[in-house]
Fold each of these.
Amino acid sequence: MTEKKHEWFTVQTYSGYENKVKANLDQRIASMGMENKIFRVLVPTEERVVVKDGKSRRISHKLFPSYVLVEMIMDEQSWYVVRHTPGVTGFIGAGNHPLPITDSEIDEILVKIGEKEAAPAPKVEIDCEIGDRVRVASGPLAGMEGPVTEISPGKGKVKFSASVFGHDTEIEVDYAELEKL
């Protein structure tokens, strides 16, 4: 017998009941001994700063209103426990066949809510030095050229000086958009 792997599923709830469903589901998992099949219940939120009437305050914003994410091993028993939790209207999927969230989608969500670190961006090798002349090859600034004034290899950005309306102006662009003259 092959062991099923645990996957993330999206559960639809009544509007505004996401936290209540999470609490109800956590309680049902414990009381019904389902800890070996239902692992995590998540209401993805992010912190936002709202400025209103000149005052700023932090609020917790639900990323997916009316939805809760559940990490579980899908079988009839675990499906029944989740599906019959008060406030749950159903799983996302076709009929009685819930569709799991892909690994890349759940990774993206976990990074967004701060539960997982993002994969490091690839290092950019910049093949120019301060004083070299460069030209923007693509993007909205295509055709502009001038000498390099600053290089930021960590960001993959290069600043160069160009004449804009008769004034020398520093312009920062991605290195990938430049060509060395």
Amino acid sequence: MSLLDGILAADEAVLRAARGSPAWATPLFVVITFIGGGWGMLALVPFLAREATRATTARLVAALVATSALVSTVKALVGRVRPCDALAACEPVFIASPGGHSFPSGHAAGSFAFAAFVASVRPAFAVPVFVFAALVAWSRCFLAVHYPSDILVGALLGTSIGLVAARLRGRLDLKGSSRSGTRSPASSRPAPGGTGTPD
């Protein structure tokens, strides 16, 4: 057996063990996968409406759109069939097969792009957003619509894009501050005998 065959066999074995187990968690993972499929982005609308958070949120949305575009491109190039369509023993749990290609997982990529961006901007939220991203990603194996390797690669792609977008956000803010005429510490120092306040 080749290394690739071994990896594929392990992929299928983990998927079969994860599929629909535990059964009581089915409603939870159905809801989580629904939110992670893009409907969760509706929660960003209030932040887009507020001037104070609009620019940052717009960059987050751009990161999610870029993630979706990259995932779609890779899926078209790889063309991997979903496990629920390829394996007789892995019918989808509760939901119908989404169709299309399997590798990588768009749910995993999008949720981890969101988590990486938010964690970079607001480190205090790092644990909850990454926990939720992991649940979204795992829901795809639980429901048998993705292989474990699909969600792993999707998570890596999404995390990379989220981190790049967050780093870009910081650089754009710094450039914006310099263009807006922010005074240097030396220029804000009070003149001798003066108060340092504008006339």
Amino acid sequence: MVATDNGLFISDKAKVRVESLMAEAGVGNDPSYFLRVSVVGGGCSGLSYKLDFDNESKPGDQVFEDKGIKVVTDLKSFLYLVNTELDFSEGLNGKGFYFNNPNATRTCGCGESFSV
């Protein structure tokens, strides 16, 4: 299923970093691989984000594409991630991926967990 209204989005900086990591992992030229985004229990605010490269679709997966990056999430995680943007920062406050999640009501100080 490819959604068009609500989805998962990726910033230009995150796109560049994802492509770089996929190339380093040796899957950059394999169109069967995609970025899997999940929400798992844990972290100081209750829920944490998880990113993986995957090439196996699962029943109920929600599939999106933004800026040429295929992003897949399970339906349960998508309920927490509707209209979330994956971004990447190399700033002084920390280097890495972070999520601009309009559904999060609270985040922890490190930005790696959230609650709704």
Amino acid sequence: MKKSFKKATFLSALAIVVPAMSMAQDKVEASVGADLVSGYIWRGQDLGGVSIQPTLSVSYKGFSLSAWGTAGIEKEDTKEIDLTLGYTTGGFSISVTDYWFNGGPGYFHYGSHNTNHTFEAQIGYDFGPLALNWYTNFAGTDGVNNERDRAYSSYISATVPFTLAGLEWTAEIGATPWATDFYNYSEDPVCNGSNGFAVCDISLGATKEIKITDSFSIPAFAKVTVNPRTEGAYFVFGLSF
């Protein structure tokens, strides 16, 4: 993984925080869409400016395959493609995601020391009022720990949805459980990566339908995020199509 998250992008938020999976059904279902966002903030990290983020997914009986990407409007912004294969039953979910970004080896390079792919496994459970998820990198480009060994970089999150004043809200807190420089990269040598357990994402977001005509509306969302580890603060607005 590139040492500077200012130059590399990952997940998207939708695809990385909650895997794109549908409840079990008896027929194949598919969806396509895109978000226009004022900034690309992922797990408490600033990964880009104004971006278009398309998504495509197919699901059947709890299994799903989804593709998500991001491309910034600036020429130098990194482009990203993520593929997620997942399964959900009831509140339980499990998935594997392949993240890839340009700016290094081409897409079909998978060598252990010659790739821009990162492979991540996820497991989680949605209790309704609370959703818990654990994510761990298991192959591809990854960070290192304090001993400069492969970190198996991990991220854990707790998400609480609620309704208030006519809006749908989501509160989230995320953390890295052990040392890695994959998350929370900074030019500051005193605060470069996570030296151990570190809370790195505290966020609050809300969504609202913006009515365009009597029969057409566009979902809009806003999200405030702070990262206690890097002392970063972000406010993002987006539209979904």
